[in-house]
């Protein structure tokens, strides 16, 4: 069974493409020994690159939005906006993140990624219908949604692999039940596009940093 | 550890405003500091007068600055405990005693991160160009130690700038995520200043620049100097240009021919233009004489000079159709003594009769002394007795007894014939070679006969040219001779001399001046003695009228003895009086 699970995992991992391309990874038909199996470190590198790219994209979109639509900054009301992911407890610093358990950290990452699937889709639709945005911006929003989706899959694969490798002691609830992970928005009012962009930029930075911390903890490297 | 004095992060500060935050910064995304200034309010400079309170989204109440830096004025330091990333902070600058909030500043920490400058900047020479004027260097640095890049907590990108020393403009290179970068195209013998700075990727806040380093490569004097090469090249080009100019000037003529071909000059066929220029006169003469157009004696092709040439050689040929018959379109059946006219070079021979000519041939007196009356005229065909009368132009079938009915009277006449009469109808009656009996002259003419119209004239020149006036005048003078069936009046036969067979009729002499043509005339109002058809102009009277010499007809007119009155007449065509000869005639 471990071999079957390993094979399934490897097939799934091989299908993982952190850059969003579909079907570029070859499927290992002859077992793990015949193909080059990417190591966990490689997987982490791919995922981290993917998250960095996602965060860069969100930063660009947020800067465009802020440049053309919002003249003022640093307003209290603006700063204290509520994101729909605010109820997710996330470590607010490097040390806090380092103190967190691997499973929890992985779970936080997955929670964040799952929380943004629908809002990003809504954001893309909202930006596409508005004529204020150019097609390039709406395409960015669409791409962000795809990247979140792909990133979530990749992190799930990593988590699965870690669990298989025995690095994860407890099971991750995020992997098992998807329905419970959906955040419940406290306020019924719909978030504007700018708020979504602001929140997503912050969360993508969180995901990127959390992944780096996780990698450093899972794969021991120098000075890590 | 450098601390910026003034941080222009949020907005440009108005110096006249009150206490305000000058900025907050984080160096490593783990701690941050905030600075403020008192502004123009001088009464708040003492420490403690202004206090900073902050509020995060997590803690709803305002908390005071956890650490006022003792060494630095107006600085609030937040250590790792109080630093929450991805958390919104709001700072307030308050004066507690007065409970006045002077300024507020909100931010999130990751947005105020300004990394420390990289360290360990150094350069190495990559290569020097072949000319020794340029070189490339590789610049290396290290990440700032405060930034945790090993774990990846901060992902840094770097920017290298360089400039020529003591200038103001910095050249920026592209962002580099690694810790080294190459600089290409630097000039030797120039000192360059290079420094580097960094920022977090996907963020916009650059850190401070590192300490600059000096890059300098001394120019190596190359052994192979480029100066002679350039000089040789320049001289070579100049030499080639000079050669081209010389070539053009030396071959100027040929080039002119090639580029500007000359227009071909007109040429005379068969004559070389060079010979015309340089040839001798004899050669030219021979050359020109060979040309047909310059032949002096060849008048064959000359249409303007027409010579009537008489060929009296072959009597056998006279049996053939004469030219007159051809001219008149009639066929003759045998006629002898027809003189044919052939083209003959000897145009002046017409005045002499050939001895082969029979005696009954008329001869005209061309030369002076010859009256020409009744003489045989060489130009006029003489008709034998057997020949039909030629007096009547119109042939009548019945009345012609000895006349061959089919042959007109003048059919056997040659090309030139004497017009003897004019029919009322206006037709020309040519005089026959022999004078036949009047009955022969009788012609049954169907045409109208007018008794009062008797036009008799004798054309003594070639053709039948006369003017109408002349004809009338002649008709008036000529006595009418009513004759039955005679459409014309002829002179009494007795006037005709000899048996030459000529019914010579003559014209009433009129003044020559009234006549456009020269006509040899007889004295007026007198029955002129029969003269030959052609008469030589003998003299010119005072009125410049030509007088004919009514001398006795002579049988032989081949007398070349000149008249005493007239100068010697050279051989000339019958009846022609060239203008120069006219001048010789004296009244």
Automatic annotation (TrEMBL), chain A:
Could you provide one GO biological process annotation from this protein's UniProt record? Answer: positive regulation of receptor signaling pathway via JAK-STAT
May I ask which residue range the UniProt record assigns to the signal sequence?
1-24
In terms of one coarse class, where is the protein primarily found?
A: secreted
Subcellular location as annotated: Secreted
Asked if NADP is a keyword of the record, the answer is: no
Q: Note whether DNA-binding occurs among the keywords.
A: no
Q: InterPro entries recorded for this chain? A: 4_helix_cytokine-like_core, Somatotropin/Prolactin, Somatotropin_CS
Record-linked Pfam families: Hormone_1 (PF00103)
Q: Which domain of life is it from?
A: Eukaryota
What are the protein's GO molecular function terms?
hormone activity
Alphabetical GO CC annotations of the entry are: extracellular space
Q: Provide this UniProt record's keywords sorted from A to Z.
A: Disulfide bond, Hormone, Secreted, Signal
Q: Which PANTHER family match?
A: PROLACTIN LIKE, SOMATOTROPIN,PROLACTIN
> Which family is this sequence assigned to?
Belongs to the somatotropin/prolactin family.
- From the Swiss-Prot or TrEMBL record, give the protein name: Prolactin-like protein
Provide the species name. Answer: Triplophysa rosa (Cave loach)
Automatic annotation (TrEMBL), chain B:
Q: What subcellular locations does the record give?
A: Cell membrane; Secreted
Annotated organism of origin: Triplophysa rosa
InterPro entries linked: FN3_dom, FN3_sf, GHBP, Growth/epo_recpt_lig-bind, Ig-like_fold, Long_hematopoietin_rcpt_CS
User: Which is one GO molecular function term here?
Assistant: cytokine receptor activity
**What UniProt keywords are attached to this protein's entry?**
Cell membrane, Disulfide bond, Endocytosis, Glycoprotein, Membrane, Phosphoprotein, Receptor, Secreted, Signal, Transmembrane, Transmembrane helix
**The protein's name in its UniProt record:** Growth hormone receptor
**Compositionally biased region (Low complexity):** 379-396
Task: Give the region (Disordered) as residue ranges.
Answer: 362-408, 428-448, 550-572
Spans through the membrane: 227-249
Task: Return the GO cellular component terms, semicolon-separated.
Answer: external side of plasma membrane; extracellular region
**PROSITE patterns from the xrefs?**
FN3, HEMATOPO_REC_L_F1
Q: Which family does it belong to?
A: Belongs to the type I cytokine receptor family. Type 1 subfamily.
């Amino acid at each position: 069974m471990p071999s079957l699970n390993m094979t399934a995992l490897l097939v799934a991992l091989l299908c993982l493409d952190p850059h969003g391309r579909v079907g570029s990874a070859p499927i290992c038909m002859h077992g793990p020994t015949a193909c080059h199996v990417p190591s966990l470190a490689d997987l982490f590198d791919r995922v981290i690159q993917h998250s960095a790219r996602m965060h860069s994209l969100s930063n660009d979109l947020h800067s465009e939005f802020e440049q053309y639509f919002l003249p003022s900054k640093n307003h209290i009301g603006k700063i204290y906006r509520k994101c729909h992911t605010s109820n997710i407890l996330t470590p607010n610093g490097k040390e806090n993140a380092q103190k967190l358990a691997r499973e929890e950290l992985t779970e936080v990452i997955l929670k964040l990624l799952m929380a943004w699937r629908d809002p990003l889709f809504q954001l893309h639709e909202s930006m596409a219908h508005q004529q204020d945005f150019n097609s390039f911006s709406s395409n960015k929003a669409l791409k962000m949604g795809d990247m979140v989706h792909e990133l979530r899959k990749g992190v799930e694969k990593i988590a699965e692999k870690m669990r298989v490798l025995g690095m994860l002691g407890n099971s991750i609830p995020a992997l098992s039940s998807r329905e419970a992970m959906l955040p419940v928005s406290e306020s019924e009012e719909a978030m504007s596009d700018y708020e979504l962009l602001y929140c997503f930029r912050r969360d993508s930075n969180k995901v990127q940093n959390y992944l780096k911390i996780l990698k450093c903890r899972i794969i021991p490297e120098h000075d890590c | 550890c450098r601390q910026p004095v003034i941080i222009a992060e949020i907005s440009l500060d108005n110096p006249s405003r009150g206490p305000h935050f000058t900025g907050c910064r984080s160096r490593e995304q783990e701690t941050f500091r905030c600075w403020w200034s008192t502004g123009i309010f001088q009464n708040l400079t003492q420490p403690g007068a202004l206090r900073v309170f902050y509020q995060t989204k997590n803690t709803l109440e305002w908390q005071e600055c956890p650490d006022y830096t003792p060494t630095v004025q107006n600085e609030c330091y937040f250590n790792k405990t109080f630093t929450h990333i991805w958390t919104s902070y709001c700072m307030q600058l308050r004066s507690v005693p007065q409970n006045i909030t002077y300024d507020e500043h909100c931010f999130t920490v990751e947005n105020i991160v300004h990394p420390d400058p990289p360290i360990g900047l150094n350069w190495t020479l990559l290569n020097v160009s072949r000319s020794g004027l340029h070189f490339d260097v590789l610049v290396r640095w290290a990440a700032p130690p405060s930034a945790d890049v090993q774990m990846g907590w901060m992902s840094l990108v770097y920017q290298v700038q360089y400039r020529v020393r003591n200038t103001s403009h910095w050249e920026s290179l592209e962002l580099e995520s690694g810790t080294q970068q190459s600089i290409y195209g630097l000039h030797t013998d120039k000192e360059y200043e290079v420094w580097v700075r960094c920022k977090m990727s996907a963020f916009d806040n650059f850190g401070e620049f590192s300490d600059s380093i000096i890059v300098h490569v001394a120019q190596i004097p190359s052994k192979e100097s480029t100066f002679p090469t350039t000089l040789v090249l320049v001289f070579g080009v100049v030499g080639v240009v000079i050669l081209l100019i010389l070539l053009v000037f030396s071959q100027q003529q040929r080039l002119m021919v090639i580029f500007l071909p000359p227009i071909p000059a007109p040429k005379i066929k068969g004559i070389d233009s060079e010979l015309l220029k340089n040839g001798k006169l004899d050669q030219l003469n021979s050359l020109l004489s060979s040309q047909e157009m310059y032949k002096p004696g060849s008048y064959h092709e000359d249409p303007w000079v027409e010579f009537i040439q008489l060929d009296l050689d072959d009597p056998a040929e006279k049996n053939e159709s004469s030219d007159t018959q051809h001219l008149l379109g009639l066929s003759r059946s045998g006629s002898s003594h027809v003189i044919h006219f052939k083209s003959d070079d000897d145009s002046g021979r017409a005045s002499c009769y050939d001895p082969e000519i029979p005696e009954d041939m008329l001869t005209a007196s061309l030369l002076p002394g010859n009256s020409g009356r009744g003489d045989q005229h060489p130009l006029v065909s003489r008709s034998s007795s057997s020949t039909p009368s030629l007096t009547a132009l119109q042939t009548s079938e019945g009345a012609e007894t000895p006349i061959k009915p089919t042959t007109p009277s003048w059919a056997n006449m040659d090309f030139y014939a004497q017009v003897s009469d004019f029919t009322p109808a206006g037709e020309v009656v040519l005089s026959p070679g022999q004078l036949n009996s009047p009955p022969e002259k009788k012609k049954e003419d169907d045409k109208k006969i007018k008794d009062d119209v008797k036009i008799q004239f004798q054309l003594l020149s070639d053709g039948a040219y006369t003017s109408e006036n002349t004809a009338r005048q002649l008709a008036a003078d000529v006595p009418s001779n009513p004759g039955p069936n005679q459409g014309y009046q002829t002179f009494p036969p007795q006037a005709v001399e000899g048996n030459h067979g000529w019914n010579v009729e003559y014209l009433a002499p009129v003044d020559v001046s009234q006549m456009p043509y020269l006509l040899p005339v007889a004295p007026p109002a007198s029955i002129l003695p029969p003269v030959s058809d052609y008469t030589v102009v003998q003299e010119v009277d005072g009125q410049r009228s030509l007088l004919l010499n009514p001398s006795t007809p002579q049988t032989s007119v081949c007398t070349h003895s000149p008249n005493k009155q007239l100068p010697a007449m050279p051989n000339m065509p019958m009846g022609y009086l060239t203008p120069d000869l006219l001048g010789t005639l004296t009244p």
